[in-house]
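Q: what sequence does this backbone want?
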């Protein structure tokens, strides 16, 4: 009788045999399971909680003295340190674990609930009376560190589960992974269940033995690398207070009643710390910049980082820069990420080989997408299928852990993209891969033209014959697609320019001219219209070249806030337009020069060019140009602080707008009305007519918000604040400025900066 558990077990066995009870008989009268009683008597588990002892005492019919002896033995046993019966298969290689703080804290919290005082092992029925066992499904793409997290969690959480901890490799990526029955048998043997009992239970009763084993214990099971729900579901405890952590490349969507955890890449700093720990702090500090590049080229993927770190650690003569430069070559990167028998590409192979043919095809072809993500319509084009079919295939890739889903977009990790492209070239040939890319780029540009023309006068909605994969039935949907796909169609446009498809470049840029005013601060409009101007020059089309040079000048003034840089462009546009005898583009060149000089506070020259533009617009019959030239002249007067003249000019411009009626595109008409109303309000402020001015400015801000024009709203909130400050209403000005600063993305960055500066000045009492 060595150890407290033996003493308790021996006493329990003596009481049972004295009453001529079998274990089965005691189980029936006490409610404690046969497995639980047998383990207690043989010393295979710690002494039970008080309520289990009470159930046993009642079943045995013990008198008061015997009850005291049984409870005392249980207390004495629980007071001694126990050596939990456990199988700990913690392989080497996790001592340098980095990151996953949030995930480990979450698992610790769940473990505390699973092994807390409310769910101790006890009589049948009592053990499952609490919240029940805790199951956590951890999913992530290959190489993301699922197993490393599971092993770290097993070590951190082991003490919470004294009855046993097991790490079981389900070998889910094998061609023939073990079935659940084989795993159950392994667990039963690990906990010393007698072979005779297992044989007596037979194949049909083995699951029952497994369930009873876990019912009476607080165990931690790590089911690592599960293949699918069919393999893992029978292994999940249904009652008791155990915790089960399942890792899988697949999402295991069909598992019910589980906590879910999805792993992403390490943060840049975590990745650098991880590499530094492998190669030494001094070396990491000496080549910090190169080490940061290595981490980035590894995509912050734990497996890739470990391989890169291993190469550096075993090649002490290498500089970190040498590895960074090797990883910089996309086509060689996966070949470089090899250390011994560890290969990033091998980890990806295991997932790729389990895909259906359609999913494998789409996975390969998604590597042709130039941007970071794609939508279902893009997938449908790449597969040559309808949208519902493409969505089904995308879901398979998400379930397989090869795609992330963010909203309605699908994203592939950088290293997976490189791997997918290698499979594309290997299985469809270089010519086939190029055909996929060319077809995708052509589809992107065709869709861009249809979406962009929604905003162009004379075009609007797609024709009834449009049968595209993207829903472009409204301006809102078209705007959403153009913005979400900006990176992709811009790459396609660049490729068209490089390939000499100059007519396509001009057509696409032309279709986007009116839309560009809806996405002012995108950052790429100068490049788009400069490419179009260059393509037009190659085509020998001076009229188109002048037009796109003028568009480019506009982007430099409005989008880039570089009015001085726009002047050579608009001057060139005027010369080209003159050669082409295009009076309207000559006028627009003067208009953009006037705008640039106005922003440079060279008001005399600005007035001169606006005047020339107005005359040329009138001769060309360009209503839009005439309206804008009048508006520009009004702002010059406002900047000169000639309030009365400015007020008159703005009012005359409004009369001109109303008279033009439907000849003015609605978007331009609405924006110009707001600009005129703002100009009138600011002119009234200069005249000291404060109440009228403030009312006008508040109405302008309200109209901008109603239109969803955040850029204009930010601009006019600052103007409103300036008027309020001039009127001596500082508190109201602060409200306007705070509203500006807190606007959603899409606000004018310069106006946000202006608002912050004004708030600072108000705080300082200036």
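A:
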């Amino acid at each position: 009788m060595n150890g407290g558990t033996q003493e308790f077990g021996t006493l329990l066995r003596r009481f049972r045999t004295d009453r001529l009870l079998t274990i089965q008989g005691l189980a029936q009268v006490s409610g404690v399971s046969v497995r639980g009683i047998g383990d207690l008597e043989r010393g295979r588990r710690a002494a039970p909680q008080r309520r289990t002892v009470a159930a046993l005492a009642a079943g045995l019919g013990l008198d008061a003295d015997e009850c005291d002896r049984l409870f005392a033995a249980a207390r004495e046993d629980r007071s001694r340190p126990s050596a939990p019966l456990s199988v700990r298969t913690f392989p080497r290689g996790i001592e340098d674990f980095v990151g996953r703080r949030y995930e480990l804290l979450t698992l610790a919290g769940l473990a505390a609930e699973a092994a807390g005082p409310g769910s101790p092992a006890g009589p049948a029925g009592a053990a499952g009376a609490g919240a029940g066992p805790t199951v956590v499904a951890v999913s992530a793409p290959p190489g993301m560190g699922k197993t490393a997290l599971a092993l770290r969690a097993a070590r951190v959480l082991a003490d919470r589960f004294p009855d046993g901890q097991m790490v079981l490799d389900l070998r889910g990526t094998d061609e023939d992974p073990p079935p659940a029955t084989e795993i159950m048998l392994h667990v039963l043997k690990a906990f010393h269940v007698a072979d005779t009992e297992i044989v007596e239970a037979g194949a049909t009763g083995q699951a029952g033995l497994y369930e009873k084993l876990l019912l009476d214990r607080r165990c931690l099971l790590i089911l690592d690398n599960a293949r699918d729900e069919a393999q893992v579901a029978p292994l999940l405890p249904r009652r008791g207070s155990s915790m089960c952590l399942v890792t899988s490349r697949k999402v295991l969507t069909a598992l019910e009643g589980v906590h879910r955890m999805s792993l992403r890449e390490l943060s840049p700093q975590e990745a650098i710390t991880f590499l530094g720990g492998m190669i030494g702090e001094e070396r990491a500090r000496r080549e910090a910049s190169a080490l940061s590049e290595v981490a980035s080229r590894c995509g912050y993927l734990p497996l890739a980082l470990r391989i890169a770190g291993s190469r550096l650690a075993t090649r002490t003569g290498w500089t970190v820069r040498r590895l960074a430069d090797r990883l910089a070559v996309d086509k060689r990167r996966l070949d470089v990420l090899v250390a011994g028998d560890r290969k990033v590409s091998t980890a990806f192979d295991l997932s790729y080989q389990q895909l259906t043919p359609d999913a494998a095809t789409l996975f390969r072809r998604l590597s042709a997408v130039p941007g970071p993500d794609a939508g279902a319509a893009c997938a449908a084009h790449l597969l040559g299928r309808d949208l519902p079919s493409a969505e089904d295939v995308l879901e398979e890739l998400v379930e397989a852990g090869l795609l992330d889903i963010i909203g309605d977009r699908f994203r592939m990790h950088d290293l997976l993209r490189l791997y997918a492209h290698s499979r594309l070239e290997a299985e469809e040939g270089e010519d086939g891969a190029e055909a996929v890319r060319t077809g995708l780029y052509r589809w992107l540009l065709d869709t861009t033209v249809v979406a962009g023309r929604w905003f162009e006068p004379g075009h609007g909605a797609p024709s009834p014959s449009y049968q595209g994969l993207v829903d472009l039935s409204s301006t809102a949907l078209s705007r959403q697609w153009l913005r979400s796909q900006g990176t992709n169609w811009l790459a396609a446009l660049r490729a068209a320019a490089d390939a000499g498809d100059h007519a396509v470049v001009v057509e696409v840029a032309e279709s986007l001219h009116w839309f560009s005013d809806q996405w002012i601060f995108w950052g790429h409009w100068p490049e788009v219209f400069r490419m179009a101007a260059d393509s037009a020059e190659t085509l020998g089309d001076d009229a188109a070249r002048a037009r796109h040079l003028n568009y480019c000048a506009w982007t430099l003034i409005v989008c880039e806030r570089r009015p001085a840089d726009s002047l050579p462009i608009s001057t060139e546009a005027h010369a080209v337009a003159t050669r082409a005898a295009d009076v309207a583009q000559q006028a627009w060149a003067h208009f953009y020069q006037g705008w640039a000089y106005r922003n440079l506070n060279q008001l005399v020259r600005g007035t001169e060019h606006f005047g020339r533009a107005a005359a040329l617009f009138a001769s060309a019959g360009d209503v839009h140009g005439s309206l804008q030239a009048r508006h520009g002249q009004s702002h010059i007067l406002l900047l000169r602080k000639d309030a009365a003249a400015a007020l008159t000019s703005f009012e005359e411009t409004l009369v001109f707008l109303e008279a033009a009626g439907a000849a003015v595109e609605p978007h331009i008409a609405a924006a110009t009305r707001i600009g005129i109303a703002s100009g009138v309000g600011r002119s009234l402020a200069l005249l000291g007519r404060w109440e009228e001015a403030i009312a006008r400015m508040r109405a302008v801000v309200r109209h901008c918000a109603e239109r969803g024009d955040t850029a204009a709203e930010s601009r006019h909130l600052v103007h409103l604040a300036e008027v309020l400050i001039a009127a001596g209403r500082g508190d109201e000005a602060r409200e306007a400025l705070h509203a500006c600063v807190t606007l959603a993305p899409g606000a004018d960055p310069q106006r946000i900066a202006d608002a912050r500066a004004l708030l600072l000045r108000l705080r300082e009492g200036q």
